[in-house]
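=== RUN LOG ===
request id: a7f3
mode: sequence -> structure
chains: 1
length: 351
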Amino acid sequence: MFVRAIALAALIATSAAAAPAVSEADFTTTNFRFADGQTLPELKQHYRTIGTPIRNAMGEVINAVMIGHGTGGTGAQFLQPQFARLFEPGGTLDAGKYFIILPDAIGHGGSSKPSDGLKMAFPAYDYGDMVRAQGLLLDTLGVKKLRLLMGTSMGCMMGFQFGVDLPDRAQAIMPLACNVIELAGRNRMWRAMAIQAIKADPDWQGGNYTKQPLNGMRVGVALQAMASSAPVRMQADFPTRAAADAAAERAMAQGLASSADANDRLYQLDASRNYKPLARLSRIAVPITWVNSADDFINPPGVGQPAAWVKAMPKGKYVLIPESAETRGHSTHTWSVFWEGELKALLARSQ
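=== RESULT ===
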């Protein structure tokens, strides 16, 4: 364990110097129709790219890798050293070999979202809408089929959604940290409680607020901090009451800073309401490696039967990372050192 900790620190320390260049752009779709029947005259999707596309004789990009982020995040989260080391020269997703696409999903980051002006009149998007929009983004980039589709947390669920909705558009899929059943039980409850807390704050004003309803938002920040926690690691990191109190204060401040708008947050948390790909998993015929963590509060191993359900996919593999003082709970999905070997194996078996 101590040896792995040293290796992990060394990997992070060396990654910043070799970080590849990142480009940013926007793609706008006109008259985008959502599943609920609403339409936006213009739907903007912000995205980042790393590397250079390689095209076949028909002009189609053949080396594209798309990676989907988590709830409330953006594609920028994959530029952190613990993940971005994959993109370095000689890395498993070397940007000299692959064309990396890091989109901001609808409702997130630089993409169209309620806080752009429509507030609660913004269409009630769901994961199906988000995946369909990303399919249009791939079209405009000239990507008929992804070499690899990855995703963490919400991006993991969108990976399964993508696989069942657009089964011919990825050569391999690697979903990290999610389940394939309807979001119910505790997973839905903490999201519902966060939504209810914002709406119960008098400052929310039905979404037409003049100042952010911070008291309501604090509840959601606290719930997500616990949902993303890793108990064994956090006990080791904050072994005293004073250390834990200081960490809680920092987590609250950071959470409020990243949850910039209450309406955006409501939509982000509710976008999973229609998610339940389990019955359609057989549509995913390409190699897929589904990775969860034993210390994931949001997707604990005792909920459901992932090891059995993965068999519905002809070339599926399920991996459960064991808990340790080094794993990161739900956030283990962003620490590539824990699952990079599985990524290499997936790339090899999907050639």
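=== NOTES ===
Residues 186-268 form a domain with the Rna Polymerase Sigma Factor; Chain: A fold (CATH 1.10.1740.110).
The CA atoms of residues 222 and 252 lie 7 Å apart.
=== END ===
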